[in-house]
Design goal:
By secondary structure, the protein is α/β, with parallel strands linked by helices. The chain folds into 2 domains: 47-129 and 266-320, Periplasmic binding protein-like II (D-Maltodextrin-Binding Protein, domain 2, 3-Layer(aba) Sandwich); 133-262, Periplasmic binding protein-like II (D-Maltodextrin-Binding Protein, domain 2), CATH 3.40.190.10. The protein is 48% helix and 18% strand. The chain contains 14 helices and 12 strands. It has helices at 3-21, 27-42, 60-73, 85-94, 109-117, 148-155, 164-167, 186-196, 211-219, 230-235, 252-257, 273-278, 280-300, 307-320; strands spanning 49-55, 77-81, 100-103, 122-131, 133-136, 145-146, 177-181, 206-208, 224-228, 241-242, 244-245, 264-272. Helix 3 (60-73) crosses helix 13 and helix 13 (280-300) packs antiparallel against helix 14 (307-320). It is elongated and about 65 Å long. The two termini are 35 Å apart. The complex is composed of two ATP-binding proteins (PstB), two transmembrane proteins (PstC and PstA) and a solute-binding protein (PstS). GO terms for molecular function: phosphate ion binding. It is a lipid-anchor.
Length: 321
């Protein structure tokens, strides 16, 4: 569902047609014009260097889109981004292996303490909103409208093998099949906080850091239920049904307004301050991220922040240079 590719191709085609129409323009003029355009787009001279990140699979689609577009602006900067989950990303960030860490939850106190112990100063930047989306198989026509209390009853481990009829006697007397993000995932942590409230997740759940595994699992079993980021639902809505929570469906509007509560949440990038100061390529990539994260978030299925939040982030970034 990489809509940004379409936009880039359209722009490139338009540029090609324009150059073709200007028959009097020499090759040298065209080259100079292209160079000027590239410099104007980047706002700086061409850079070289490497940038490394890791973290949340939920934030990953936004970052992947940004990396792909940034390569057209700064082709000599190599940006690599792993997807080991929010917790796994913070582990690498603490170990000094990455310049930035994507997160689908705020950093934990123990992670802050580890970073302080390692002498790593960092800055938190918000990049988008997400609505953690609960999904069922399209053949499931009984559990499409759930309450927070029912979600808790469904997902909290209670030592029994649960059937749908245990949640509501009018539902099928069939065993529930669970799919959940792995324990290193910020999505897991967020669900744990707002739904489980610290209780153990259903032991029977299949856990995976790969959201595509969860999508396929729910899509292939009429008794399955799972949860993950809103973008992954949008990308697969032809084979999944999104559950309403306390009568509210996840949409761009309900997620941005906070009406889709308690499953609306901000998404973050945590940047290493020393890397921003010492690595010009990283600073430039973070600047590009904050300037374009809203557009890219919308392109891949998330919800952009108010413009003033990105402007606030850019001012904070400028103060770190």
């Amino acid at each position: 569902m990489k809509k940004w590719k379409y936009l880039t191709m359209t722009a490139a085609l338009g540029s090609a047609l324009l150059l073709g129409a200007c028959g009097s323009e020499t090759d040298e003029d065209a080259t100079n014009a292209n160079d000027a355009t590239e410099t104007a787009e980047s706002g700086d001279a061409q850079l070289t260097g490497t940038v490394a990140g890791d973290g949340s699979s939920t934030v990953s689609p936004i970052t992947e889109a940004l990396v792909e577009e940034y390569a057209g602006v700064q082709p000599d900067v190599q940006v690599s981004v792993g997807v080991s989950g929010t917790g796994g990303g913070f582990e690498k960030f603490i170990a000094g292996e990455t310049d930035f860490s994507n997160a689908s939850r705020p950093i934990k106190d123990e992670e802050k303490a580890e970073l302080e112990k390692a002498g790593i100063d960092y800055t938190e930047f918000q990049v988008a909103f997400d609505g953690l989306t609960v999904v069922v198989n399209p053949e499931n026509d009984w559990a499409t409208e759930l309450t927070v209390d029912q979600l808790k009853k469904l997902w909290v481990e209670d030592g029994t093998t649960k059937k749908w009829s245990d949640i509501d006697p009018s539902w099928p007397d069939e065993e529930i099949v669970y799919y959940s993000p792995g324990t290193d995932s910020g999505t897991y942590d967020y669900f744990d906080e707002v739904i489980l409230e610290g209780a153990d997740l259903e032991n029977a759940a299949t856990l995976s850091e790969d959201d595509n595994v969860l999508v396929q699992g729910v899509a292939s079993d009429k008794n399955a239920i799972g949860f993950f980021g809103y973008a992954y639902y949008l990308e697969n809505q032809d084979k999944l049904t999104a559950v309403t929570v306390d009568g509210v469906a996840p949409t761009n509007e309900t997620i941005e307004s906070g009406e889709y509560t308690p499953l609306s949440r901000p998404l973050f990038v945590y940047a290493k301050n020393s890397a921003l100061k010492e690595n010009e390529a990283f600073y430039d990539f973070m600047k590009y991220t904050l300037e374009n994260a809203g557009e890219m978030a919308e392109a891949v299925g998330y919800v952009k922040l108010p413009d003033e939040k990105y402007e606030e982030g850019l001012k904070t970034l400028e103060g770190l240079k």
